[in-house]
Design brief:
single chain, 339 residues, alpha/beta, Rossmann fold, 30% helix
Length: 339
C-alpha cells in the first residue's frame, strides 16, 4: 500500500509542487541570423534571493521573480506563450508567473515585426514565421544542455492571445487559406482584422512564402486559444482534422472587432467536438486576458494615445483580477488534465 501511495505521489508531483519563487531569464535566440528572437523564460525555483518586479510600469502591474535563478532538479511541463498583434511578453506575464509558481517552465518570444518594440514591415509580413518562432523555441529547449534535462518532452502546451492564438492554432493543424480569407473579408469586412491583411502579408503571396502552409507540430500536446483573431482565414477542411486538444476561451464583450461568435465561435464550430472545449467570459473584453492595470491606467493610456484606454477596460460588475483567477483555473485544469 505504501508503495502504491508513493507511486501516485510521484505521478502527480509536477502538478502539485509549488515553488518557493519564480525564476526569470531573458536571452536572444540566434539560430536564424535573419530573425533573432528575444525570449523570456519563467520557471520554478527554490532559490531564496530577494525577488524583483518585472513587467511593472506606470500603467501595468508586474510580478515578482528571481532573475537568473537556479532551476529545479526534475523535469517540468513546458508551456509556450504567443502574444497578440504588437504585444510583448509582458502581456501574459501574470499567467506565466502563475504557471511557473505551480511547477511549469514557460517561454515566450517577442515576435519580430508584430511586437511592441519592432514594427518592421519586413518582418511583420512574414506571417508564417510566427508559428515557426514557437517551434524554434521548442527545438532550443529540448536540445540546449541548460534546459533539456528539466523539460518534460511529453508534456508541452502552447497558449496564444489574439494574433498569438492564430499562430498557435497553426501548430495544432489549422491552415491559412488565402481564398477563404478573402471570401470572409468580403462577407465580414472589418478594419481591425481584414484591415491588417497587407501589413501581415495575407493579401497576396509573399517572397519566400512556403509552398505549403502545414505547420502542425506533434510535440505540442495541448493548445489554449485566448480570444483569437483572423480565425476565418483558416480552411474548414483543416480545422475539421485538428486532433490536438484545444481550449477556446473568448471575450463576450465586442470592442469593434468581429464578435467572438464569428472568431472563437468559428473555431468551435469547425473543430472536432471531441478535441475542443469552448467557453465565453461574458464580462470580459479582448484585453482582459492581458496584465492587470493600475488605478488611473486607462486615463493615462488614453491621454498618451487616443483609443488606447480600452486596453484597461473590462465588463461591468467584475474586475480583471477576478477574471484572471477564473481564466487561470480553466487553463490549469485543461493543461493538467490527463487526456
Amino acid at each position: 500500500m505504501k508503495l502504491l501511495i508513493l507511486i501516485g505521489l510521484l505521478i502527480c508531483w509536477p502538478y502539485t509542487t509549488v515553488a518557493s519563487s519564480v525564476g526569470f531569464q531573458q536571452f536572444e535566440l540566434n539560430d536564424d541570423p535573419q530573425r533573432p528572437l528575444p525570449i523570456t523564460v519563467w520557471y520554478p525555483t527554490q532559490q531564496k534571493a530577494p525577488p524583483e518586479l518585472v513587467g511593472d510600469n506606470l500603467a501595468f502591474v508586474g510580478t515578482k521573480v528571481v532573475k537568473d535563478a537556479s532551476t529545479l532538479p526534475h523535469k517540468s511541463p513546458f508551456v509556450l506563450l504567443s502574444h497578440g498583434y504588437r504585444g510583448n511578453w509582458r502581456n501574459l506575464n501574470w499567467l506565466a508567473t502563475e504557471l511557473a509558481q505551480k511547477g511549469m517552465v514557460v517561454a515566450a518570444p517577442d515576435h519580430p515585426g508584430t511586437t511592441t518594440f519592432d514594427h518592421s514591415p519586413q518582418h511583420a509580413s512574414l506571417w508564417w514565421q510566427r508559428p515557426r518562432d514557437l517551434v524554434r523555441i521548442l527545438d532550443h529547449f529540448q536540445t540546449d544542455p541548460t534546459w533539456r534535462s528539466i523539460i518534460d518532452r511529453d508534456n508541452v502546451s502552447a497558449i496564444g492571445h489574439s494574433l498569438g492564438g492564430w499562430s498557435v492554432m497553426q501548430l495544432a493543424g489549422a491552415q491559412f487559406d488565402r481564398n477563404t480569407f478573402h471570401q470572409h473579408c468580403r462577407q465580414y469586412p472589418n478594419p481591425k482584422t481584414c484591415g491588417l491583411k497587407n501589413e501581415l502579408g495575407l493579401a497576396s503571396p509573399q517572397p519566400n512564402e512556403p509552398a505549403a502552409f502545414h505547420f502542425y507540430e506533434p510535440r505540442i500536446k495541448k493548445t489554449v486559444i485566448l480570444d483569437l483573431g483572423l480565425a476565418r482565414s483558416f480552411s474548414t477542411s483543416s480545422l475539421s482534422k485538428v486532433n490536438t486538444p484545444t481550449l477556446i476561451l473568448a471575450a463576450g464583450i465586442d470592442i469593434g472587432d468581429l464578435p467572438q461568435a464569428q472568431e472563437s465561435g468559428y473555431l468551435a464550430e469547425h473543430l472536432p467536438l471531441v478535441s475542443r472545449r469552448y467557453k465565453v467570459y461574458e464580462q470580459a473584453m479582448h484585453f482582459s486576458f492581458m496584465q492587470l492595470c493600475k488605478e488611473g491606467a486607462a486615463e493615462l493610456l488614453e491621454k498618451e494615445t487616443t483609443g488606447d484606454g480600452i486596453v484597461c477596460k473590462d465588463g461591468a460588475n467584475t474586475t480583471r483580477r477576478a477574471l484572471h483567477q477564473t481564466m487561470f483555473d480553466d487553463i490549469w485544469r485543461f493543461i493538467t488534465k490527463s487526456s
